Amino acid sequence: MPRFRTVLFDLDGTLTDSAPGITASVRFALKELGVTDFDDSVLYKFIGPPLIWSFKEFFAMSDERAQKGLELYRLNYNERGGKYDSKLYDGLEESLRRMRDAGVRLGVATAKPEITAREVIEHFGLDKYFECVSGGNPDEKRCGKRDIILHAMDLLGEKEPAKSLMAGDREYDVTGAREAGVASIGVLYGFGSREELENAGAEAFAASPEEIADYVLG
Could you give the residue numbers annotated as active site? Predict the structure, then answer.
C-alpha cells in the first residue's frame, strides 16, 4: 500500500529541466531594464520563487520596477517560446505511471502562473498523469507555496494533509509543505542543494524521479 494517497509535484526543477528558458527570459528582462552588471549565477536563483520577489530580492528593485521586470520576463517566456525551452527529466514518465497505476493521486503545485503551467504540462503530454494543476494566479495574490499547495488539495478534494506529499527542489517547496501540514521530499536532481533542502526540513530526499516513486510506494 502506498505511503501517501496524494503526491504534489513542483514543476521547474522537479518535472522539467527548465533552466534554459527561465534564465534566458530573466536575462532579457534585465537587459531591457538596463541592468547589465551581474553574475550569471544569479539567474538560476529565479528558478522556484515568485518572480516579483526575485527581482526585488536579487536586484533591489522597487515594486514598480519589479512589476515591469515581470512583464518583460513573460514577454520572452510566454510569447517567444521560452516556456518550451526545457526537457523532462530521465525516468520521470515511468515514475509517474508507477504511482498513478498504484492508485496515487497526482497533482502539480507550482509558483508559475497556472495557465502557463497547464500549457507546459500539456506540451509534454503529462496531463494524462495529473488530476490538477495549481499555480500562481495572474495578479500574484496566490503566489506563496503554502497557498498553492492548499489550493491543489482543494482541487483534488484531499481533506487529510497527513496523507499528502510535496516533491520539490527548493526550500520554498519544503517550507510551503510544512506550513500546509504536508510531508515533503527534497528533489536533489533539480536546482536546489541538499544543504538547502535539509535546512528547510525535508523529510526525505530523491536523487532521481525513480526514487520519488520508490519512496511513495514503499
Answer: 10
- Report pLDDT digits (tens) over 170-215: 999 999 999 999 999 999 999 999 999 999 999 999 999 999 999 9
CATH code assigned at 74: 1.10.150.240
The rounded Cα 117 to chain-centroid distance in angstroms is: 9
Number of residues that make up the chain: 218
Q: What is the mean pLDDT of residues 49-55?
A: 92
151 Cβ contact partners less than 8 Å away, ≥ 6 residues apart: 109, 134, 142
3-state SS assignment for residue 183 = strand
Tally of domains within the chain: 2
Identify whether 62 is part of a domain: yes
- Whether residue 143 is found in the same domain as residue 56: no
pTM beyond 0.85, yes or no:
yes
Q: How far apart are the first and last CA of the chain?
A: 8
Q: Strand pairing of 16-17 and 87-88? A: antiparallel
**Residue of 44, 110, 94 whose CA lies nearest to 208:** 94
Q: In terms of Cα–Cα distance, which of 213, 215, 218 is closest to 98?
A: 213
Under a CB-based contact definition with an 8 Å cutoff, are residues 170 and 182 in contact? no
